[in-house]
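Fold sample X.
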Amino acid sequence: MQILKSLGLLVLILLLSTLVVVGCGNGDKNPDTGEVEKQGAVAVAEPAKIDFPTKPICYIIPFNPGGQSDVEARRQQPLLEEFLGTSIVVQYKAGGGGALGWTELMHAEPDGYTISGINIPHIILQPIARENAGYSTEQINPVAIFQGTPIGLAVLKDSPFDSLEDFIAYAKENPGKITVGGSGKWSGHHIALLQLEALAGIDLNYIPETGAAPSVSKFLGGHTDALFANSNDLVTHNDKIKVLGLGSEERFEALPDAPTFVEQGYDMTPSIDRGAAVPPDTSDEVKAVLEEAFVKIMNNESVRGQMTEQGFVPLNMDAEKARQHIKKKQQEYIKLLQDLGLPE
């Protein structure tokens, strides 16, 4: 008798289990039609997790130590290591206004273990101006764009030039005599000088360096008469210099006494945007891991606050926005060079 009761109980449990399973698959009534909708259990596959990174990542800085690209990479370094769970090795590849480093990036394995800082407009101007820059703008595979710096023209405190008007008047009377430092050729600084020459009808003597740091150092040492420099360097050395013109649309918060080029009648707003890129053909999965880490840094309020205080402009562009930004800027600079009749 006990065996029969147990068997009956087992059958009852099995029947109830069947009813529950059938009930889960039948679904609920549609409130609009009153008909039962099928809601069969659908297995949703989780995104495949890739085993990356598993070793140190090389972060190429295509300029000298101490410049803006280096400063930002060093700020990002500990955060990238935290978010990616691996060490970040900063490596300097200065030369050709950044072209040496970007050429190396183009030939690196597309496995995510080599990334590089990128600068706009350098990555646009160089392939246009040089027969063999070593890379093309279209090959640049951006992960993010995180920073901007308006470019300004500065002289030392003891300079005889107290205004842009003084500077231009002297340059007109003394063609090629004023030496002006800057970072690289066919770079943001170089194009700013070419713009000013064209707009003001003057001829300046441009002295390019391999990065912002050496150009600032030589300028402060009196080796050049003037300097095209990034906003953060102008802020850092504001007590030693006079800023004759700045490439922002409106007066820059960190340099309220510096007049813009625009307000002085020169329609130019030179600036440099910085970001990071990976080699062409890097997989979307690997790129997404790196992109997520940079997005976290760009959204970090402490990082953004530090940038602003130091004279940088925090930007926040993920990979797709960065790609669109580069394409837009490429069109703008092609037109600018055509308007200036450059390069020769």
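Fold sample Y, listed below.
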Amino acid sequence: MGRRLACACVAALTVALAPRAICAQHLEASGGGTVTVGDTVTVDLRAMLPEGASIAGDPHPRDSLPSSVRLLAMDTLPRAADGAHRYRARIAFFQTGSLTSPAFALPYRRAGAEGGVPDSVVSGAVLVTVTATLPDTAIAMRDIRPIASLGGSAGSASRWWLVVVAALLVSAGAAVLLRGRRPRRTQVPEERAEPPLGAYEAARARLRALGESDLATHDVARVYDEATDTLRRYLESAHDIPAAHRTTPELLRALPAALAGHAGATRALLGEADLVKFARLRPDAQAARAFVARSADVLDAWHEAAASPAFAPAGAGATDALR
């Protein structure tokens, strides 16, 4: 009898502690709704971690995003009263239908764990309904009028073709005769071509021309797009980073060690451009010109950091000594 009672107590204790073990860490996702193509969708993330655990990075999509989904930003919110870590993801969908948001993964380290690969907790997905910007009653585009016929019979058309072919042959023969009689020209020495600009000089010149133009007075969104495209192309040319087609979080994670000290300014600059490009934010012309100036400041900071002796490539000193 005593043995049965002891087994029953152990079983009850196991059932009581099982939910705590299972729910010791979890990442909840909420939000979604109905939006149109390109609108911003907000997904709130709420993470509960084991006692003593520490965050090892920002939440990020667990899987690669399809081309029709863009992660615009990941904001960190104040912690909840119960100690939960809170984040807010802003996503844009460019495909219609009933879709789901990506699942997010949050890396963390358990208490006492140092180094090695951190653990991660993964969220579920929320349902998002994306509708088209055009109404369902819109009809397909058609030509304004059918292609007009040139008219005439088949016989007359064939005679016209013969005349055209004969004229072309006569013109070709005349050109050959004139070329044979044309005197030879003295060869003029070619002017020495200017050396091509480096990645930094080319990006600086492009931002200078953008700031001096009047594009901000009639197309603010293009100013932001041109400025950030210049920065991304500089990273591709100078640091061999495929930055043109990466989202802002992906680009920040790919920054080389030489530029890591300027990640905050880079995140603020690209985040503001994402709001203009995807969230339909429209600043005034003065703000757009100021954005171009700040883009030039970030470019200068990148260039100076990359040229710093602390980040010089190995063997550079030995090469200079040989010279």
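Sample Y note: Confidence is low (pLDDT under 50) at residues 13-23, 139-144, 146-150, 313-323.
Also: Helices lie at 2-22, 154-181, 199-212, 220-239, 248-254, 263-278, 285-307, 316-322.
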